[in-house]
Amino acid sequence: MSRTPAQSDSSRRDFLKTSAAAVAGAALAAKIATRAYAAGDDVLKVGLIGCGGRGGGAANQALNADKNVKLVALADAFKDRLEGTLSNLKKAKPDKVAVDDDHKFVGIDGYKKLVESGVDVVVMASPPHFRPAHLKAAIDAGKHVFAEKPVAVDGPGVRSVIASCKLAEEKKLSVVSGLCWRYDKPKAETLKRVQDGALGEMQVMQCTYNTGFLWSRPRQKDWSDMEFQMRNWLYYTWLSGDHIVEQHIHSLDKAPWAMKDEYPIKCTANGGRQVRTDELFGNIYDHFNCVFEWKNGAKCFSSCRQINGCSPDVSDHFYGTKGVCHVFAHEITGENKWKYAPDGSEKDMYQAEHDALFASIRSGKPINNGDYMAKSTLMAIMGRMCAYTGQTLTWDQVLNSQEDLSPAKYEWGTLPMPPVPMPGLTKFK
Length: 429
What we know:
- This protein has helices at 15-24, 26-29, 53-64, 79-92, 110-115, 131-140, 155-171, 185-195, 225-231, 237-240, 243-246, 249-258, 349-363, 370-389, 395-399; strands spanning 44-49, 69-76, 104-106, 121-124, 144-147, 175-177, 202-211, 266-272, 287-293, 299-306, 313-320, 323-326, 331-334, 338-339, 393-394.
- α3 packs parallel to α4 and α3 (53-64) packs across α13.
- The model is unreliable at 1-36 (pLDDT under 50).
- It is globular.
- The strands form 2 sheets. A 9-stranded mixed sheet has the order 14-13-12-11-7-10-9-8-15. It has a 6-stranded parallel sheet with strand order 3-2-1-4-5-6, with helices on both faces.
- It has 429 residues and is of the alpha/beta class.
């Protein structure tokens, strides 16, 4: 088994040394022959990397997105997850699932074989830690991509994603993000009006994602440390980025969206691990509170929590000099009152993002969501790093961070649990 999924020829830690050469080779890479679909109805072959619940859902949506598409390959670290998802998809879409035994790729390195197996579109839904390596492999191989959120867990990972998405643009490949609210028509119409100035000058944004516990899987006797952590990936920062990155990113993404995709210049945050202290919950926090600041002085106050027995709240509110936007109500109050009126054209946002991906492939007009999916991931990482260290950090500091959360090796064996971060003691790297 390879040392790390991003180390085909060099390690992620050597990324900055090799990325310039990779980008310089983009023009040559763009000449690599790829199939064209703009005028035809050829079968689009789909491969799924990551066969958990979200992966199965995303694959099903991909199969709904085009009349002539087939799922032909699956990859997952665990055979039981792969076979379970395949069985469910066969029942749901028997005419669109054609995965033979030679196209079931089990193991941490299975993604490498999948991208080389003749697929046209790769759906990525593995734990976020692996997304940079998976994206790089797919784009290098000339594949279109759906990448579930978030797309990295640390600075080196984000930089890798940025480089891969730039290469995708050079190769005219589509990259669609799993930041699904961007594909929700009522939200898009609401945020468009905010961008057009309905609130006047933005002053304050409030983004909240307070929920309860999520799933967990008790340790089995035959599971190694690595298997236990990967099967409970939500609770390990190296795998999920912590819940501010894995879940709260949906809220945080709306703030820069409202600011015309301008991102904050600095952040101060706090957080902790008050209730979920059992070792089952790995080394992540159970609550965060952040203050992000933009260069014009606008601030976003964000809060996220995963604690049972508390009042839930998933909401976003934007305050400007002329009014207030209540995002989930799709309403603006103040000088420019407005409320979204459904017209029957609305789609399920999860389906809409796949519809857009496959339509872009057929039309020959690529979509590339790489900029905002990478930067919104970095914004969430920024909040986490500020809370972990207790330091106010700038955007550039976090973007250029050398903290690489990758384990020393990828094998089914001993993997000590990383310590729980302690503000004032944990250092920024």
